[in-house]
Design goal:
Shape: globular
Structural class: alpha/beta
Strand order of the largest sheet: 3-2-1-4-5
Helix content: 25-40%
Number of strands: 5
Radius of gyration: 17 Å
CATH superfamily of the largest domain: Ribonuclease H-like superfamily/Ribonuclease H
CATH topology of the largest domain: Nucleotidyltransferase, domain 5
CATH architecture of the largest domain: 2-Layer Sandwich
CATH class of the largest domain: Alpha Beta
Number of helices: 7
Number of domains: 2
Oligomer: single chain
């Protein structure tokens, strides 16, 4: 994994978490790492254990030049769709960044221009560039913590385990208990298989 894509420019990495979830917000992070940052454990957050993500999150928060979060909640996701919401969450994280940067490194193929900054979309960027991997970890750990918190409000859906993603257990809970205020109403919340099983 490389520290930088453009050796002569100040880069900020962006990634989101929660895009495929049935409930809760989409959370993005924007991270600027120092020039000499090194960590051989840093990788795409989905490839790491929860414990390792938490460990790396503390290191990133301690070492990063800047580390900001952007959140778009389920009501707005339903209004503007998940792709636009993911990009908006990244823009919100970038908006909070007070340190200067020149190039935005985005995980994935989609982004909308942010102000006058150059941006570079990189498929699987969270396994190629450290700043994107760091953003991936920060977004994921922040969102997981949020989902564990709202699990206490609606324990039937087991969000402390599935984080709102479409597991069979989660879909069956929706079938049995209905939807909560945190569910994304524009998403397909119950699949055909679940319906046939009931």
């Amino acid at each position: 994994m490389s520290l930088k894509r453009f050796s002569n420019k100040i880069e900020i990495g962006c990634d989101e978490a929660g895009r495929g979830s049935l409930s809760g917000p989409v959370v993005a992070s924007a991270v600027i790492l120092p020039k000499n940052f090194k960590n051989s454990d840093l990788n795409d957050s989905k490839k790491l254990s929860s414990k390792k993500r938490e460990e790396l999150s503390k290191i990133i928060l301690e070492k990063a030049i800047s580390c900001k979060i952007g959140i778009v909640h389920e009501t707005e996701i339903d209004e503007i769709n998940i792709l636009n919401a993911s990009i908006l969450a990244m823009h919100k994280a970038l908006e909070k960044t007070q340190n200067s940067f020149e190039v935005i490194l985005i995980d994935g193929p989609h982004f909308k221009k942010y102000k006058n900054h150059l941006h570079n979309c990189i498929v699987r960027g969270d396994s190629k560039y450290l700043a994107i991997a760091a953003a991936s970890i920060i977004a994921k750990t922040y969102r997981d913590k949020f989902m564990r918190k709202i699990h206490n409000e609606f324990p039937n859906y087991k969000w402390h385990k599935n984080k709102g993603y479409p597991t069979m257990e989660h879909r069956l809970a929706i079938k049995n208990f209905g939807i909560s205020k945190y569910h994304r109403k524009s998403f397909k919340l119950i699949d055909n298989q679940t319906s046939l099983m009931i």
